[in-house]
Each structure stands twice: as structure tokens, then as C-alpha cells.
Amino acid sequence: MNVLIVFAHPERQSLNGALLDVAVRELEAQGHKVQVSDLYTMHWKATVDRDDFPGLSSDASLKVWKASHDGFAAGDLTEDVKAEQEKLRWADTVILQFPLWWFAMPAILKGWVDRVYASGFAYGVGEHSDKRWGDRYGEGVMEGKRAMLIVTAGGWPEHYSERGINGPIDDLLFPINHGILFYPGFTVLPPFVAYRVDRLDDAKFGVVADQLRERMRTLETIRPIPYRRQNYGDYQIPTMEVLPELVPPGVKGFEVHLAPERD
User: Fold this and answer.
1) What are phi and psi of 216, to 5 degrees?
2) Deepest of 30, 39, 211, 229, by most Cβ within 10 A of its Cβ?
């Protein structure tokens, strides 16, 4: 299996960096091929601007979706973006690894998504009609590939629980899991989250490292998050609302987009 890890932490000699080493070594020990995009080491350009679209006329207005669509179709995106797109094509599994900063991913990783996910590559594909709304949410270019998050948080697991002050971790990660990974077609695996990372001593790190090794050993077998696929009858078009009869009583919010698991 080919595994791409997109790593977003400014200090390679950090706990995040140590977890990256654990993941890579375990994956390679299992016989998998691994590539790492270390965004800070790469000095990844995080902002989208006119420089991303060499073919855009100087007197044309910058509409990012159109410029990325035209640039992708013409093979005229910048070399760093094209290189990352090739890595995504190569990968069977993609892992985004990052510290949870202000309830989201670091800006450099969001910038990787903004620039690499060009229109025609990660979105804006498939038939758009009164029966379909494009190939997305379970379909698309990344269909057949798996993806997951490795996330570190400073807070306690209780802080990210159903009654926790920060809100449930699955809710906080929903925009990434559902909106960034499931949208272009990835099968999304449950995230691996390490808590209280600023207080991990060697013994506690050893426990987390063992848990991560186990997760890397089960990438091909662990049950994915059972998100509802867009074009398979659960949503009414064009409003894109889950059919009311499919939502159990009391279920609301992000949970309505989870289909009942079938054995």
C-alpha cells in the first residue's frame, strides 16, 4: 500500500515529529511505501493568489475556482501544486497529521488544501443535473482511497467529550473529515487523537506510540466512519437535505449524516 502523510508542525523535533517517526517506521515495517510532505520544511506557500495561476491573463479578474479549473485542465498549475497532486494520485491512503490549534488545522495545512484541491481535480467533477449534484461526498477523484487524521491536543479527553467545554472531538473534526476528505471521495477512517500531549512523560508517550502503531497496522481493516453518500438516495436533490424518514428521532446536527452501520 502507498501511504502519503501530510505533516504540519513547525518543529520537527517535537512530540508530533516523534509520532510521525513512529507512524512511518510501523508502516514501512508492514511493507508499505510511505511519502511524507513536511509542509514547514518544504516552506509551503499557504495563500492562494495570482501567482498560483501562471496562465491567468494580467487583466483578468481572479476567480479562484475558475482559475484553478482552467489551470488544472491546461496542466498549467505551479510545480509545487502539481507535485502534491501526483502524490495524491499515487497514494492508496492519505494521512493528515497536525496539532489542533484554535479548534482547527494549522493555516499551512489549510493552505495545502486550498491550493492542491484544484477544481477539476478534487471538486467540480461529475454530472450536475436534477438527479445528481456532481461526484462528491463518497464519489469523485479520491474514491477507493482511504484517509484519516492524526491529531494532537493539549486538552484532556474529557474537554472534548459530549459534555466537554470544547465540544465533542468528532464535531470539531467534522469539517475536515466530511468536508475535506469525504467530499472528494475518500473513505474516511476514525481519527487518531492524542490528548494532554504537553504533559506526556516517556511512559505515557510509550502508550500513545503503541496505540498509534496498532492503528497503522489496521489501516486496511478498520471500519470507516459511515457517512451517507450523496447520490445513493439518502439526500433529496436539489436541497441536499437528508430525507426526513431516514433521521431517527432525537438525532440532529452532524450526526444526521451518519448512516446506520450494517454488518
Assistant:
1) -65, -30
2) 39
Report the distance separating Cα 226 and Cα 204, nearest Å: 31
E strand or H helix at 161: none
Q: Spell out the residues 6+ positions from residue 93 whose beta carbon is closer than 8 angstroms to its own.
A: 1, 2, 3, 4, 145, 146, 147, 148, 219
Q: How far apart, in Å, do the first and last CA atoms of the chain sit?
A: 25
Q: What is the pLDDT along the chain (263 residues), one digit of tens a residue?
A: 999 999 999 988 898 999 999 999 999 999 999 999 999 999 999 999 999 999 888 888 999 999 999 999 999 999 999 999 999 999 999 999 999 999 999 999 999 999 999 999 999 998 888 888 899 999 999 999 999 999 999 888 999 998 999 999 999 999 999 999 999 999 999 999 999 888 778 888 899 999 999 999 999 999 999 999 999 989 988 899 999 999 988 888 999 999 986 54
Number of Cβ within 10 Å of residue 5's Cβ equals 20
Placement of cell 438527479 in the chain: 131
User: Structural domain boundaries of the chain?
Assistant: 2-225
- Does the pTM surpass 0.90? The reply is yes
SS3 label, residue 20: helix
Name residues whose C-beta falls within 8 Å of residue 76's C-beta, 6 or more positions apart in sequence. Answer: 53, 54, 55, 70
CATH architecture of 2-225: 3-Layer(aba) Sandwich (3.40)
